[in-house]
Amino acid sequence: MTGQPPSPLMRELIRRIGASGPMPLDEFMRACLGDESHGYYRTARPLGADGDFITAPEVSQIFGELVGLWAVEVWRAMGEPAQIALIELGPGRGTLLADALRAARLVPAFMTAVRLHLVELSPALRADQAAALGDRPASWHERLSDVPGAPAIIIANEFIDALPVRQVIWDGAVWRERCVGLGADQALGFVCADEAELSIWEQAGLPPEPAPGDIAELRPQADALVAEIARRARADVLCALIIDYGYSHGEAGDTLQAVSHHGFADVLARPGEADMTAHVDFATLARAASAQGLQVFGPLPQGRFLLKLGLEARLAQLLAAATDAQREALMSGARRLVDPAQMGELFKAMALTSSGLPPPPPFA
Ligand code: SAH
What we know:
By secondary structure, the protein is α/β, with parallel strands linked by helices. It has 14 helices and 16 strands. It has helices at about 10-20, 25-35, 40-45, 55-60, 60-75, 95-105, 110-115, 125-135, 200-205, 220-235, 280-290, 300-310, 310-320, 325-340; strands at about 25, 85-90, 115-120, 140, 150-155, 165-170, 175-180, 190-195, 215-220, 240-245, 255-260, 265, 275, 280, 295-300, 345-355. Strands 2, 3, 4, 5, 10, 14, 15 and 16 form an eight-stranded mixed beta sheet that branches. Strands 1, 6, 7, 8 and 9 form a five-stranded antiparallel beta sheet that branches. α5 (about 60-75) crosses α6 and α13 (about 310-320) runs antiparallel to α14 (about 325-340). The longest helix is centred in the first third of the chain and has 17 residues, at about 60-75. The protein is globular and about 65 Å long. The termini are far apart. S-adenosyl-L-homocysteine binds near residues 34, 55 and 58.
């Protein structure tokens, strides 16, 4: 016990579970992250050294710069449309976008064509994003489906990992829904509900020969996101770049994690006050995308993706103009992005495109 009073969302969740019974994990996660009054992404400033976690664009400017040059190449492959929606899902502090646009200034026609659309829940982060963009006009949206249709380049770095997951657990005979319920002491605890309702699509994605106690994760909102990307790609030329941490084959079991002040936290301890994510299942994402008519490229490990996009050349350029202190930071940042023991292997990049587009760099 920490002696701290329960978080406001904890009281609300205990009330709701007391009234309606155990809550499926995705509903719990949705409340923790997105609750209108107390959700983590509605209230916190999560990113950075004084926040809870750090992401690739915050580690090194090279990440956003390479993504910016990648976007220019994709726009060229699309035939240089006069207007291109550059849509970022969950832009955090706006660092990736600011670095990307600075690099893309080398191609003025691209800058003239770009219309910025940011999909973001957090009011605090929206303010950070506006500050990072300076006087460049941009529109903010609650969800991708609110962005007007247009030829589009979509960027999603560490966005899908924050979309809620369901968990189902094999009891030897059926898959049951893993839920958050109340123990005798009225504290939150994991419970198994009745047999889970699973669509044929979901059943096909579950491990074929589970052992009792095995847990599998499903992410209905990722399937919905892929369906929305596919819908847009049927109307207009489109390329989406998805970068996230996760696995590309096999089953990972229970990957739900809470992170607070750069360390792991108990998922149930302080709802709404810690970041909560789960690994991205790239194989399921790819399967859903192909089934919806999208072309799928990758996933490639982040390290290989960035090296093939020219990370070393960009690093050399920056080092040539840097002071000694800056050199150390530049080198350790770049290393962290590509080193297989750090972000280079666990993080992966995948592209989804409308049919007819050639493979985007560096997937060719
Ligand atoms: N892409 C950024 C931030 C990653 S953190 C970076 O790489 O630094 C996740 C981001 O997604 C945050 O900006 C968060 O507020 C936003 N977010 C999480 N869930 C969301 C949702 N359902 N809809 C819109 N934005 C969401």
